[in-house]
Amino acid sequence: MKEVKIETTLEIYDAIEDTSQDIQNLMKEAVKARDKAYSPYSKFDVGAAILLDNGEIISGSNQENASYPSGLCAERTAIYYAGAKYPKAKMLKMALTASSQNQLTLQPIPPCGACRQAIAEYEVKQDLPIEIYFMGAKGKVVKSKSLANLLPLVFESSVL
Ligand code: THU
What we know:
By secondary structure, the chain is of the alpha+beta class. The protein has helices at 21-34, 74-85, 113-126, and strands spanning 11-13, 44-52, 57-61, 91-100, 131-135, 141-144. Substrate binds at residues 62-68.
């Protein structure tokens, strides 16, 4: 038996103003998307914005459904739209923000496991890391240099 240690390094910024101008712009788009969330059941609004290598920004918000599992997270709404609209473009950066309607969300909210798997598909496909930045309603921003950094032991197509 041998033990394997898997380490993840994240960068933490005290506020969005401490990030570069392009990330501030991207986060602004994520906030705009968050404000369009359709979340009558959870009251938890999430926005995602993705910067593509063609300069376009594609954004999305969570879309819920009375049949709960039929709803979709903001990250997947955005990434599937980006993949559908610009199939050849590479995804460079993704900004995420989440805000509960019931309380002030001050901690950074990372993408859920299912969204990490969905984002991983595109990172593997394009063979280029996607930087992920996530925040709550405001406050600290966490940067991961890639999706793989957030999902060790990823399941991906090369094994099929
Ligand atoms: N949600 C997202 O949009 N992204 C995530 O990564 C986690 C959760 C949404 C799904 C649902 O509409 C609400 O947040 C509560 O789970």
